[in-house]
Amino acid sequence: MTAVSPFAPKRFPTLPPIDGVRLGGASAGVKYQGRPDLFMAELDPGTVVAGALTRSLTRSAPVDWCAQVLKKGTARAILVNAGNANAFTGKAGMEGVRVMVDAAAEAVGCTRKEVLVASTGVIGVKLPGDRISKAVPKLRAGLTSDGWPQAARAIMTTDTFPKGASATCAIGGVPVTIAGFAKGSGMIAPDMATMLSFVFTDASIPKDILQKITRKAVDRSFNCMTVDGDTSTSDTLLVAATGKAGNKLPKKASDKALKGFREALQQVMTDLAIQVAKDGEGASKFITIDVTGAASEKAARRIGLCIANSPLVKTAIAGEDANWGRIVMAVGKAGERADRDRLTVAVGGTVIAEKGEGVPDYDEAPVAAHLKGRDIQIDVDIGIGRGKARVWTCDLTHGYIDINADYRT
Amino acid sequence: MTAVSPFAPKRFPTLPPIDGVRLGGASAGVKYQGRPDLFMAELDPGTVVAGALTRSLTRSAPVDWCAQVLKKGTARAILVNAGNANAFTGKAGMEGVRVMVDAAAEAVGCTRKEVLVASTGVIGVKLPGDRISKAVPKLRAGLTSDGWPQAARAIMTTDTFPKGASATCAIGGVPVTIAGFAKGSGMIAPDMATMLSFVFTDASIPKDILQKITRKAVDRSFNCMTVDGDTSTSDTLLVAATGKAGNKLPKKASDKALKGFREALQQVMTDLAIQVAKDGEGASKFITIDVTGAASEKAARRIGLCIANSPLVKTAIAGEDANWGRIVMAVGKAGERADRDRLTVAVGGTVIAEKGEGVPDYDEAPVAAHLKGRDIQIDVDIGIGRGKARVWTCDLTHGYIDINADYRT
Q1: Which Gene3D superfamilies match (chains A, B) (predicted)?
Q2: Across all residues in chain B, what is the average pLDDT?
Q3: pLDDT range class, residue B20, cuts 50, 70, 90
Q4: Which residues of A are catalytic?
Q5: Average per-residue pLDDT in chain A?
């Protein structure tokens, strides 16, 4: 068995109820035995939904389905199983989706187009849809407004801890709550179709505005996080807004009244993204990379991800080695504007390379002490512009090889 | 110490002399002690030179210098040291280049603009140029037409074996010889600025034509090979043609008389690229990936490299696991045109997934037997076009982590 991540919190956070949302988990025995593997949420009529889906060109049938539902943008139910990704399963893929959708629609009493589904687990194995449909009526009957821990656990695959986060804010003086959870232990976990996240709020927001705010929050949270650079066939993030808070309906995404909401949603999604990186396969260190002075925010993010995805940077951190040459290398391969002679690299707050060369006689002691810790900070200033981004990842250790090379044996 | 690659040949190949080329290696003590670390080649007057350099935006000072010399395209000497990459060394970088260029120019009696240099090794440490310049006169005096083994060894860093290859052909009925060598143990070796390759021929070819043929051969050899996807600050390939064979000067790169030469140069460079992949850090398996049916050759290459760079595919192969779901995932993330339902994936010649799903009840025995071997073949047909490419890589093992995480300790 895989060791629990050293970053696992002592307990799952207490998440607040969201008016209009009831949720829970159940054991359907899709693949795992003796643990919940089916998550369901029931949403009150009038709930709008936004989301972000994998850009993979080999995406799964459930993702195809969600793309259709998101166009309409209203939802009454979400049904998710773990243990089987229902990806690359040919025509049986959409058949599996149909069984899940039918079961949820019947239980909730809504149309099929109001049901979102996701599947995570092994690729290429036919989904045993009957086990899921059989479990749905009882699962639905037991949904509660505080079923967060069961729900978060039910979507886990190789995760070593469930991941939840919440925040509150106000829209035009009306209090609003956001809560959600995520699974993922790498952009791809072994054999697993991986990152899923479900976020709920009682805010009243038109779907186009919710979609815009969600997209931006994704770019600054989940899209700033990487474990191994591999892209899932099933990545799915859904944000459901029940409208029960009763705030005044905003007119546009940039509405001043939405400032608090934008920040709170960003906070929840960032929190969840960081938890995913901290549960990265084999992770022994959590790495935050701040890139400043790039040509644009996009350029900064790409440079940050290039550093975060470099196996040589990740192994150096695992080895507690301030190998800044590898960071310079990763900046160079990112393909974004950079000037060798304007780069500044700091580790743990100590500048160790600047103006195109290593800092002679920098004090190695604080850097070495920092690298012995669990939380590693890398700052890179590109020195040519004002674009900045923060990116999160974990180190690359023997644990990753153990998990991924020895998965079936 | 790192174990020698299981793919290391019993001995360095016997390479033929190239008329107009004298070469050899010497110990300058730049970093390594008790082994050759300085390679020099002297080229007869009239030698033209082509090449390919790293696209890294943080490339080293020696690469900057080579880019200048290649514009003119004639050369009389090549001088290369191992153990120090002279990369990210600020103003001292070009100073180090100057010392090397001066030493070679003086020894050979040529202009500075006729000297090419390369450095490979640690990034960010000032090059001890005096040790190099001191060693050059004696090194130059001892150059011979059969100094290949010394030369190939002198440029090694973390390589576990020297890599050489040769081929013969004819241009318009006149026999022509090509021989060369390379170093590299990953696109980046630990702390090392990595892939270098030097190829020599007696063919008589104008520099623009040589450059065109070289570029194409690079795209189908070194650019089809990856160990860890990281890009060196120092990658340098040089092809020097002395013109001593006396063949009729070709008029263009597509000249029919050059067919044999193009193929022979491709063969030598492909051979060297494969040897680099086989000496990849921690490699226990050599992987050939044939992509067919893509939208274009470029698309096929990109898909192939995406599979080759996927840590999840590489660890699956290390674990002798026919995990085709990960191959499908890598195709999906390549960003090139692909259709989930037209993909075909074969391992060791056995089709295990096609038409959007796994082949039910495929015979696992030959696949398992194939994966237990050292040479792994993966075939992916995209099913939408005629573009094809072959890509080489190695698996990702505990050895890679050992070498890269524990490098300084």
Answers
A1: ArgJ beta chain, C-terminal domain (3.10.20.340), L-amino peptidase D-ALA esterase/amidase (3.60.70.12)
A2: 91
A3: very high
A4: 194
A5: 91
B343 touches A at CB < 8 Å = yes
Q: Give me the residue from B309, B323, B332 closest to A56, CB to CB.
A: B332
Angstroms from A198 CA to nearest CA on chain B: 23
Question: A353 and B315 in contact by Cβ < 8 A?
Answer: no
Q: What is the Cα–Cα distance from A299 to A281, expressed in whole angstroms?
A: 27
Q: What stretch(es) of chain A map to CATH 3.60.70.12?
A: 21-278
Instruction: Provide the number of CB pairs (under 8 Å) joining chain A to chain B.
Output: 234
Where do the CATH 3.10.20.340 domains begin and end in chain A? 286-405
Question: Which numeric CATH code is attached to A21-278?
Answer: 3.60.70.12
Cβ(B183)–Cβ(B24) below 8 Å: no
Give CA–CA dist A1/B207, Å, rounded.
Answer: 60
Question: How far lies A70's CA from each of A38, A113, A115, A117, B119, in Å?
Answer: 21, 9, 10, 11, 55
- Neighbour order of strands in the sheet with B196-201: B48-53, B236-241, B196-201, B174-183, B163-171
Alpha helical stretches, state H, A334-381:
364-372
The confidence score (pLDDT) of residue A248 equals 96
Is B231 annotated in the active site? no
Of the candidates B88, B330, B398, which has its C-beta nearest A356's C-beta?
B88
Give pLDDT, residue B307.
Answer: 94
Nearest to A401 among B122, B325, B398 (CB): B398
Token pair, residue A44, equals 């009150």
> Can you tell me the distance from the alpha carbon of A158 to that of A194, in angstroms, rounded to the nearest whole number?
9
What pLDDT sits at residue A194? 64
User: What topology does CATH give the domain B286-405?
Assistant: Ubiquitin-like (UB roll) (3.10.20)
A396 touches chain B (CB under 8 A): yes
pLDDT at residue number B409: 43
Q: Which residues of A touch B31 (CB under 8 A)?
A: none
**Do the chains contact at A325 and B59, CB–CB below 8 Å?**
no
Handedness of CA A50, A54, A58, A63 (dihedral sign): negative
- C-alpha–C-alpha distance, residues A378 and A29, integer Å: 43
